[in-house]
Amino acid sequence: MDKIIFLIQCNDRKGLLATISHYFYSRGYNILHCQQHSDTEAKRYYMRLELDLKDLHTTRKELQSEFKVFGESLELTWECHFTDYRNKVAILVSKTSHTLFDLLSRYHEGDLLCEIPLIISNHPDLEFIADQFRIPFYYLPITKGKKDEQEQKINALLKQHHIDLVVLARYMQILSSEFTQEWYGKVINIHHAFLPAFQGA
User: Fold this and answer.
1) Beta-strand (E) ranges in 56-193?
2) CATH classification code of 3-82
3) Residue-range domain boundaries for the chain
4) pLDDT digits (tens, 9 = 90+) for 101-134
5) In whole angstroms, what is the distance from residue 133 CA to residue 114 CA?
6) Is 17 exposed, middle or buried (0-12, 13-18, 19+ CB in 10 A)?
7) What does the alpha-carbon distance between residue 118 and residue 82 come to, in Å, rounded to a whole number?
8) How far apart are CA 36 and CA 14, in angstroms?
9) Which fold has domain 87-197?
């Protein structure tokens, strides 16, 4: 079953569950699942709400635009996700092959519910693996003293392909603070080297 998932947070106060639930009920949505938590120390309220996608009778953009107005009235911070949407994932690699091969094998078998439109590397070594899985491979070498230019090219490719998530699969470079700020919350580092211990990795 495809769902609409709302992730909501705001300052805690009485009546939030009733108010938010009634908003969706009054618009004909069936609430499939609801989780909530109040952080008494921080005085914050958190909610995860699952709706049946079949109850959507407007466009997705209209749903989010209307909820934005409602959310502003309650000073909500929120995200909306649709489970039938496949996130676009970019993989960044260097020379080590096993992590990339494992990811692409799982992707090929249908275990990773996403799209992988490109692989980016600062070395050409793993292009043969990308070719095996018919995924475009972009070799962007790092010229001494011009690492920022290479990173700008990476950023441009990510935006060009409307990437939702960046996976660092043993990408042996420390990312700049500018890059990590721009892609904050959208980068996953899955290698086990020492680089993740340092700022920007």
Assistant:
1) 77-82, 87-93, 114-121, 137-139, 165-168, 187-189
2) 3.30.70.260
3) 3-82, 87-197
4) 999 999 999 999 899 999 999 999 999 999 999 9
5) 15
6) middle
7) 23
8) 13
9) Rossmann fold (3.40.50)
